[in-house]
Amino acid sequence: MTQAIEISTKPLTAEGFAPFGDVLEIDGEPDKIINQGKCGRYHDRIALAFGDDGRAGVSLFKSEVRSLPHTIDMMERHPDGTQAFIPMSMNPFLVIVAEDDGDKPGMPVAFVSSPGQGINFHRNVWHGVLTPLHEPGLFTVVDRIGNTPNLEEFWLEPQYVVTK
């Protein structure tokens, strides 16, 4: 086995993550004040897409907590739909993405979210698995539900290690 390649994390920002998807967060003033003036609505914050034969599904994921350094040995993508990870706590999580390099992941990029941020991967974006860094590891996931496959996995050689 080849020695793992080290990569470092970056803070998760809308600009830095834009090639891979959307950052779901509250920024700026709300689009509308609702509920008798007691709630700000930040409207239509991510672009969901589910192909011709799919629909939006909302699921709950309970994932084991990971720590750094973290080895990336597999990446996946969803050609027929977006996938949003919305943490159900105010804890940061690790987000790993890569540009496509001839139908395989290119060099991974690692982000660490801030409390209150979620993400939405664009269709066909290579990404790591759900990687919470703190308990409880509970997420709402919005993705495509359909009768056709929507998952491609690629096992990495060499592997990558997210160091900090």
Describe the structure.
With 164 residues, this protein is mainly beta. It has a single domain (5-162), classed as Ureidoglycolate hydrolase (Jelly Rolls, Sandwich). The chain has one helix and 15 strands. The strands form four sheets. Strands 2, 9, 10, 12 and 13 form a five-stranded mixed beta sheet that branches. The protein has a five-stranded antiparallel beta sheet with strand order 3-11-8-14-6, with no helix packed on it. A hairpin with a 4-residue loop joins strand 4 and strand 5. The longest helix is centred in the N-terminal third of the chain and has 4 residues, at 14-17. The chain is globular, with a radius of gyration of 16 Å. The two termini are 23 Å apart.
Identify low-pLDDT runs: none
What is the strand content? Answer: over 45%
Broad structural category: mainly beta
What is the CATH topology? Jelly Rolls
Main sheet: strands, sense, barrel: 5 strands, mixed
Q: Terminal Cα separation, in Å?
A: 23 Å
Q: Residue-averaged pLDDT, rounded?
A: 95
The total count of strands amounts to: 15
Evaluate the radius of gyration: 16 Å
Number of helices: 1
Helix content: under 10%
From the spread of the alpha carbons, the general shape counts as: globular
CATH classification, class level: Mainly Beta
Element string (H = helix, E = strand): EEHEEEEEEEEEEEEE
Integer count of domains? 1
CATH level-4 homologous superfamily = Ureidoglycolate hydrolase
The CATH architecture can be named as Sandwich
